[in-house]
Amino acid sequence: MNQVQLGHSDLRVTPVCLGTMTFGEQVDEANAHAILDRSLALGVNFLDTAEMYAVPARAETCGATETIIGNWLAKHPGQRQKVVLATKVAGPSRGMPWIREGAGMTAADILASCEGSLRRLQTDVIDLYQIHWPERHVPAFGALYFDPAKDKSVTSIHEQLDALGQLVKAGKVRYIGLSNETPYGVHEFVRLAEQHGLPRVATVQNPYCLINRSYENALDESCHRLGVSLLAYSPLGFGLLTGKYDASGIEGPDAPKDGRIARYESVRKQRWGRLEALAAARRYNALAREHGLTPSQLALAFCYTKWQVASTIIGVTSVAQLEEDVAAYGTTLSPELLAAIDAIRWETRDPAI
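Structure for Aldo/keto reductase, as requested:
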């Protein structure tokens, strides 16, 4: 598996990244360590986590994922140099007072959160430190429209960059990134960094999959021209693009009880739980089978082969899932199949936006 450069940084990562938000909730520590071991054996060198994980977010499990990864690194001290380690500072509370008080995300919050992540991860430096969601109000997590009346920002982008710059200068963070961002946000972070000599964002981590290609509505041009790499999350559309809900739907007596949508009530009220998202997913899944692929192979190959994507974040709950997802790398999609994908998108648009 070839490695790719992230933005203007010197970070080189595999085009498949292991997402870990299930560690500490769906996946216990022993199985998480087995997944981490196998991931490295398969050649994946990129790990992504966050201070608020595990998910669904609860006070009892906040920080659990980083702790599990930190314990794994402590057991295998030689592995730290082999992996690019990414984590995230949570944005404003969003109903999670156990992360921080108040509605904002101050410079002091960023510094304190980084110290907490370093401690839980049992490492001296974070390779890629990302803002999990914007401090200002943006349409994200299922919201469709920007509403100026809801903008209660208390910390400017310049102040956020300055705090991140302090961490880079102190050697605690190598590079910085964004997540769940907009074209405006990416442009403003880059503009202010260049204007004030502060760290330049290397990446943006946003949803990108067959049922949510909103990244292609302007943000892809922004990132391309600014040299910011996309880390695509939810390539399987929270399980909708695996085919497991095709017959049963996401609710009801026959729906899989072990899936994330079944476990996460809040998710069913957001983008992935929409009936339109499931209807579109069923069409893509049927298309995959018509072309001799599994739904997962089609969905992952779509992300793995798109020029917009630097690395695709896969979230797994078992070694078997990990092996299946990594094995899909290298799958090619014919021009005819790509045209059929675009034809479905033209009709369904981005129902899981």
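The chain has one domain: 4-240+303-333.
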